[in-house]
Automatic annotation (TrEMBL):
Organism lineage string: Bacteria, Bacillati, Actinomycetota, Actinomycetes, Catenulisporales
Protein name per UniProt: Pyridoxal 5'-phosphate synthase glutaminase subunit PdxT
Organism: Actinocrinis puniceicyclus
Gene3D superfamilies the record matches: 3.40.50.880
Biological process, per Gene Ontology: pyridoxal phosphate biosynthetic process; pyridoxine metabolic process
The keyword tRNA processing belongs to this UniProt entry's keyword annotation: no
Length: 194
């Protein structure tokens, strides 16, 4: 997805690999496993520092949880990198069997400028949302721009995409579709942050 948008993609598992990138994608998976691995590989402080220094980051699903300042239904002791002033609820739509797909109206998706400020209206674009034991966003701070909500079906009205400065997060998994626009938006944001 990143390469389809003109970026070079490399895996980041260790602090030295983090030092080499201009932006970080935290994919879906399992936030509790990411927490344990990031601790074991001493990634917590370096990632938090890069985020505080303005490194763009995009988290989908478990990655959204990792970028949240607060998590509901976390396991005891579970930590996140944080950065986005929001409260997310893990597994909010239900169990694995409650996973679903459906259309999402995503604000700013087709805009030319990925770095527009939080007040910009952007353009509405529809994309196919893949939700797998997904979180939703319960609450956002004033600096957070809500870029998508569920419009029909389970969790109607819930916030499923946000943006705060150079940080963005989605409850769903664009990386599991053939539509590169969300990653394209992130790549434009990384270029704008240079
Ligand atoms: N439920 C998972 C978690 O809590 C996220 C699932 C996903 O990334 N698809 O981390």
């Amino acid at each position: 997805m990143l390469e389809a948008s003109g970026a070079r993609a490399v895996p980041v598992r260790r602090p030295a690999e983090l030092d080499a990138v201009e932006g970080l994608v935290i994919p879906g998976g399992e936030s509790t496993a990411m927490w344990k691995l990031a601790s074991a590989f001493d990634l917590f402080e370096p990632v938090r520092k890069r985020i505080a220094d303005g490194m763009p980051a995009y988290g989908s699903c478990a990655g959204m949880i990792m970028l949240a300042d607060r998590v509901l239904d976390a396991v005891p002791g579970q930590e996140t990198f944080g950065g986005i002033a929001m409260t997310v609820r893990r597994n909010a739509f239900g169990r694995q069997i409650d996973s679903f797909e459906g259309p999402i109206a995503f604000d700013g998706l087709d805009g030319e400028d990925g770095a527009e400020d939080a007040d910009s209206a952007g353009t509405a674009g529809t994309l196919h949302g893949v939700f797998i034991r997904a979180p939703w966003v319960e609450e956002v701070g004033p600096a957070v721009r809500v870029t998508a909500r569920v419009t029909a079906g389970p969790g109607t009205g819930r916030i499923v995409a946000v943006r705060q400065g150079a940080l963005m997060a989605t409850s769903f998994h664009p990386e599991l579709t053939r539509d590169p626009r969300v990653h394209g938006l992130f790549v434009r944001l990384v270029r704008a942050a240079r």
